[in-house]
Write a structure and sequence with these properties.
Elements: H1 15-53, E1 61-66, E2 69-74, H2 75-114, H3 123-133
Antiparallel strand pairs: 1-2
Helix pairs in contact: 1-2
Length: about 150
Amino acid sequence: MASKSASDYREPPNEQAVANIYAAMRSELSQIYSNITELEMQVSEHTLVINAIQPLDPSRKCFRMIGGVLVQRTIKEVLPAVHGNKEGLEEVIKKLYETLEKKKKDLSEFEAKYKIRIRKHDDSKEEEGNKKEGNAQGVLVGPASSSQ
């Protein structure tokens, strides 16, 4: 994946090009956030596994998925590998956070350079309209029926 910083972009010819570049930069930030979240979930899963197997007998057999293949090992063999994988994931997360900070800085520089401001939807008008309709939102009241 070829990533570009704000300084790598040439002077855009028009507002639409600026908007497209800005959207691409925000999309890239979003993708980094989702990668970090996914990796943090994997770290928590590794922690759960470590906490579950650490107190057990090291000679006890356990199963581990390696490249889509389930293999039988002992806890003594698996525990160091799981620790190593967890540390590797934490290192990748640390690098992703560094990249994220750099991309955020590039994005804010780009926003400042082109005076970009994000408009927020005005939800207050909609809320006022809903309050005027009544407080019984989501309640369906029908005619009373007498069943004999």
